[in-house]
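Worked example 4.2. Below are the chains of a multi-component assembly; read each line carefully before continuing.
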Amino acid sequence: MTTKTLKASATGSAILPALFAVILGLGIVTLAGHVQASALHDAAHDVRHATGFPCH
Amino acid sequence: MFSRILTSALFAGAAAGLIAALLQFVFVQPVLLHAELYESGELVHFGAEAVSARPELPGLFADPMRDGLSVVFTMFTYTGYALVMVALMSMAEKMGHAVTTRAGLLWGLAGFITFHFAPGLSLAPEVPGVAAADVEVRQIWWTATVAATGVAMWLIAFGGNAMAYGAAALLLLAPHLIGAPEPESFSGPVPTELGALFAARAFGVGMAAWVLLGGFAGYFWQTESKRADAHA
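Applying the procedure described above to all two chains together yields the following structure tokens:
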């Protein structure tokens, strides 16, 4: 019984952290690659071209 | 769990990002700077006179601010990729698939196809100065293509039945059959030789960096897991 409860909670606690990490990662990629604010665009300009993000 | 994902992703992303930045400086940046001479009008081809293919280019790190920012943003970008990949690795491991350095190389290749090659296949990596459709429309297509390709990669790796493979094939093909947003007219002043070289180099460097990212992520995920187990 105890083992079962532990297992269930371990599985449950695996999905949320992964989900947070995916959202954080996609947020970072969006910030670095897509946001068109001019300071960000200028700073990331060469990287966006070289990494294949749509630029300009 | 979250800290294990975070630590592995930060190590892998920073290492692969740094290597990607250095490879870009050597192989991509000179082509980009060369193209910018045409974008700015300093060089013009299509004229009666032939233009030298080897103009004087600013050397590596000629503009420390610009190049420094490129290093920071490349590491930042690859850390973002790493967070997504390591999180998915943790899910795959939960499903009983071993995550090793070797398996990580395949993860990296799948990541390259998802985030770089698939969108770039119809929306080729752009050298500065080329004609292109509206940036917002291209970003929507780019995002949809990455999403569809990412799901397809997962289905190919873990689907395990004909239905999954069929769905993956459809997801891989659909964005390109629908087609990427294209410019109304061509107005790019950059020689096609530079555009082609830029796209090829961007893909090559991207693939190298991604495969390394996958290998690093698999490696750090394993070491971090061992450390967590030792503490438990």
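Take a moment to check your reading of the output against the notes. The CA atoms of residues 38 and 190 of chain B lie 5 Å apart. DSSP finds six helices and no strands in chain B.
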